[in-house]
Each structure stands twice: as structure tokens, then as C-alpha cells.
Fold this sequence. Notes:
single chain; 754 residues; alpha+beta; seven-stranded mixed beta sheet; 21% strand; disordered N terminus
Amino acid sequence: MNTIENVSRRQFIGGVFSAGAFVLAAKVFPESAWAQEPAFRTGADAAALNPSVYLGIQPDGTVFIVTHRSEMGTGIRTTLPMVAADELDADWGRCRIEQGIGDPRYGDQNTDGSRSIRDFYEAFRRAGASARTMLVSAAAAQWNVPVSQCVAQNHEVVHQASGRRVGYGALVAVAGRLPVPKAEELQFKPNAAWRLVGKETSTYDQSDILTGKARFGMDVFRDGMVHASIEHPPVLGGTVRSYDDNASLKVRGVQQTVALDAFKPPHLFQPLGGVAVIANSTWAALQGRKQLKIEWADGAHASFESESFKNELLQTVTQPGKVARNLGNVDAEFAKGGKVLEATYYTPMAAHAAMEPPAAVAEFSNGKATIWTPTQNPQAVQEAVGAALGIDKKDVICHVTLLGGGFGRKSKPDYAAEAAVLAKKLGKPVKVVWTREDDIRFDYYHTTAAVYHKASVDGRGKPTAWLHRSVFPPIASTFVPNAREPLGLELDLGLVDLPFDVPNIRAENGPADAHVRIGWFRAVSNNFHAFAAHSFADEMAHAAGRDPLEFLLDMLPPGKIPDLKAQGVDYSNYGVPYEKYPIKTDRLRRVLQVAGERSGWGKRKSGGGWGLGIAAHRSFNTYVASVVEVEVDSRGGVRVPRIEQVVDAGIAINPDRVRSQMEGSAVMAVGLARTGEITAAGGRIKQSNFHDFQVARMNDAPYQVNVHIVDSGELPTGVGEPGLPPVLAAFANAIFAATGKRVRELPLSRQKLV
């Protein structure tokens, strides 16, 4: 196993999964109990019933449910507790949700990769079912009746024969002395008995958010706290040659400046270095920072120029690459002659640009650190802060606030490490706040990519051989200095797992240098792989004069499960066994068929500035089909009247949140496709705020997004990311349908459509 693959098993999070952190809840369930560790959660009580690290019941009947995943708008802080509460048959109004601190006893806490529901659905079911089983047993013993005659009903146990009933709180003392049932002993509620799962449920924090009571990272305050704003090296790996802070120190409220060491490769989640301005308010720190005079030593990445680098990628992608998947012999098929189609696609870098920029508060005392921050991964905060301070990660406590968006950026806790370093240096609590400009210029960027497709086609336009190759600066470069090749996991996201029925297929990847920090972003490399692959499928359909929907269904034969292992793919499958979550063409066909039905596909002929585009993609074990409607005016202006999103994510725990994620993905995809682009000159990022890195404005966004949730009995999977990739391709395909002009490069703002 090479160095990069070692990293992939140990550290890579990648928006997919933390391979070394797959401590599923089953490993901490049911042996761990809050009563053993009173400090493990707020309000722990030795008199409470504590069958799980996720759930406890107090003698007054209050149910405490700990959510160990981060809330950033997905609703996971509500949805996972719904699963436990439903199995417990609890009164939702008597459930109190608490946010877990960073602690490995919860299992994996990295809230990305659209896997919170997938990985912890069973654990939270077990938590609720265990508590219910113990309460029912306690009531039966108290009444001296068979357990089989007792049932849990809405926060009470009822003896069916006599009608006697007792509230959960009154049973806690007796139930707490019973052994926690083994997993195989549990009986789960039938689906028909669910009162919460599958029902529309508002988020637990909705009222507090709407009334300004909810606490985000920016809202944290500690007594004696100072505020810091940091001027980072403008080029990755740059250092401070010298600086003059005289003018800064004259700004009212500024107390001092502190030089921060540059990182040692690999950069991981280390602070970037630079100069911090310390003040009695964020405003004063920002004003003082503007007065700094710094001479930078830029380093090797100062040569990075976006346009020339783009040309390098486009050149590399034309050359043979490292084979990642192979079935049959594409070269032999190409050599036969016949009709061959080729196309190259390009996507630029993008910034996460979450509504809330990074922020963190840190305290350091007696060799231990406490952090308050909006993070997607509190355990990563513990590791990064521990490394930065030279202390054991066990001596770092991380409190997780609500997040004003994340998209993968807040899995990377460099900003928390900055606050911790400053707190140790200054001996007092420190709040570090990044500006929007910092957020845009010093991101872990969604990588740029070039993707090449080539196919030989038969008389009906179906590919008999299909070669696809991608080249992009890899996420691996975050973990391995000078890494030019991606982790295998990066290729598993849309390159090696296309399910189309093609007798000869080969997937390749070429090397590329990273000159900025590269990180996972909503849907990760599925975005550019899906944009290219499903655009190319549309090109094949039109080249054959066939309807794109009919063509896609023809390439997805019913009942097929691709055998990727036989094609040389060590498929990670988003961190779960392929046998449990296989690629099923039936599910892709279904979402395509529903999308066709709901969009009115084929009822109106495209052209003359109006068109529909379609694409379907499986990512994060979830299946999504998108139909985008566009209107293109005589000046090339693009309007998106409607998007239809069809999703099969297995059992939909909270349809309200499924719908919101599909809607948000559609809006984000349209924004990226229209204007999303990060560029560099002299190694410096050129964009700085929303005026030059534009997210979708109201007039840019789709006017209507309709979400259709496929009724499914399959295991539940995630919805935070899978809605984005197919929209990119469907949008481009719709523009072709409307104008006859093929979009092979994003963003659209660089294209002339008329």
C-alpha cells in the first residue's frame, strides 16, 4: 500500500467518510452509559435511565436525546432524535435535544458525506427500543403481569388487559436497574406504527433561530475575552519576511500583534500563519489589521496562474492516464472504426462561501484547551488543536455551536487551531473571526477539473466502448506533500462507478499539482464527473437523434448491479459494504421515470430559446434525477423557471428536510453553473467577496423547485449532497435543448449562448 493510500485509510474525510473513524454506534452501544460518565452530557443524573450514549430519561419523564452530529441546516439535530423518540414511543414535546461535545464514545462525528442518517439510523433505533424495552419490563414487574401484555404508548406503559397505565418517569428508578437489552433481543416498531418517522417535522431549533435566540459560533462570549483578526500569507506556504505594526497599534482598541508560525508540510488543518491583531472588539481588530505593513516571502506557489494551469489540465487530460476501471478492450473497439464521439469538459475552482464565515473561541488553562466553534467535526478540532498546542487531544474539549452553513469547509478546523494557539500565547480567551474576504481567499477549495470522454457508438447511438478520464488537483495534497494523484476514494465519486451498460469501458486519471488548499465540497468530485458524464450521455443521445430520457433508460437495463470489483475497482462505496448498498439500475430508472412524468417530458418540443434537460446520478448511496427547464433570451440571458428533483434515499425519515436539501442543492448548483469560479494570479486568489464570487441571487435562482420523494423501503441514506451533481448536467443539457449550443465549460458567465 502506497503512502497516499495509507492516508486514505487513516485520515481522509473527503466529504465521503473518515475511513479510520468508522466507529459505528454499535461499538459504543449499549455498553457505554451516561451514568458511568456524568460529565459526558449536560444534565446527566445517576437516577436517570441511561441505556445509551444517545438517550436518557429523567425521573420527571423528560427524555434527553444527544445529537452528536453538527446542525448546519440539514436538520440532522432533529431527524436522528426523531428516530430514537419514535422507537421509544415518546411524546416529542417532552424530548429535549442536547448537542454532544467532541468525544469518540459517540462514534464518528464528522458531519459530512451525507451519512449521518445512513450510519446512525440503526443506533438511534436501538437507543429508543432499548429504553422502551426496559420501561415495559419495569412496568410488567411492578404490576406482576407478563411483559407480553404491556405496550408503550405516547410516553406511558399500558397494561392492555386492565387498562392500567404509568408514565415513563415513574418507571425510571426500576428500569434503570435492569440490564440493557442486547441488540438481537430488541423488537422494533413496525413501520405502520411510526408516529414521527416519515412525517413532516419542523427543526427543533426553528423557533430559536427565527427569534435570534439560537447560538452560532459568532455568538460565543467568554469573560476576559479578546478578539483577533489574522492577516494570512496571500500565497499558500508563504511566510512573513518582516512587518510593521506601528500604525496598527495606534488604532483605538488594538492591544497588540502576534506573529503566527507558518505550517510545516503537509498543511493538513494547521494554521496558515501570518500576523494576528489583538483588540477589545472584532471591529478594532479589523481596523488595526488594515494598517499592518507586511513584506511577504511568497514561495513556490507564487507561479500559480489560473489560465495557464487550465491549459495544463486540458493538455494532460488528452494523454493516457492511470487506469482505475477496465472492462473489455476499448482500444480494440476504437480500432474497428465506425462512429466515434469525443468531448472535453472543464470546471473551475469554487469556494464554499457558507453564510457564516469561520469563527472560534478558545481558552487555554493548566495544559488543557476548551473550544467553542461552528464545526462539522469536533473530533478533528480536538486533533488539530492538540497538535497545534502540543497536548493530548483528550485534553481538548470542543463545544459545537449551530453552523451557518458548512458544505465541507467547517470539517477543517484550521480556524479553531488559530484561536487555540493565540489563547495559549496570550493567556486569555480569544475569539478569532474570519471576514468574508478571508473565507473566499483562504478556503480549502473545490478543485478545478478537466474531464475527457470518448465513445464509439453502434447504429442506435449506444456506446460500444467508452473511455473517460479526469485530471484535477487532488484532495490528497492536503495530507501528503506534493501529492499529484488522487486518493482512490476521489475517483469513486462519479468516475469509476457509472452504471451504464457498456461492453467496453475504461476510466483513467491523470496527475495534477495543487497550488492552493484543496478540500471536500458539497458532493465533492461527483460534481465535475457527473457534469461531464451526463452531458456526454446527452450528446450521444442527440447525435443518434434519440430522446435523451429514452436513451438513458436504454443504457440502464433493469435489475442490473454492476460488478465493479471484476473491473479492477476497489470501490469504497462511500464507506459502506457494496453488498448492503449496491448500485441498482432499477432505482436509477425509477427516479428517471418519475422525473419524466412530473416534468411533462416530451409534451413540448425544445428549441427557440426554451428547453428541458435531464440527468440522473447516484452519489452517497442515494439516487437523484433532475429535470431543468430553461429560457434563453436573444441576448443570452438565462432564466430557470423550474427544476424537478426526484430522490430515492430509502426511507425518508423527515420528508421536510429531504425536500429542503433537494431545493437547496438545486439553487446551489444553478449558482455554481452560472457564476461560480475562483481564479488566481501570482498565486493569489483574485476573488474576495460576493461581488466577484457570486452565489445565486433571487433572479438567478430557479423560480420553482419541485421535489418528489420516491416511496421506498430501502435503508435510509443521505440527502445533503446527492441533489447537486445531476442538476449541473441537466442545466447544461437544457441550454443545448433550448439553443443548440453545447456547454462543456463552466461557469456559464464565460460562455456566449447566442
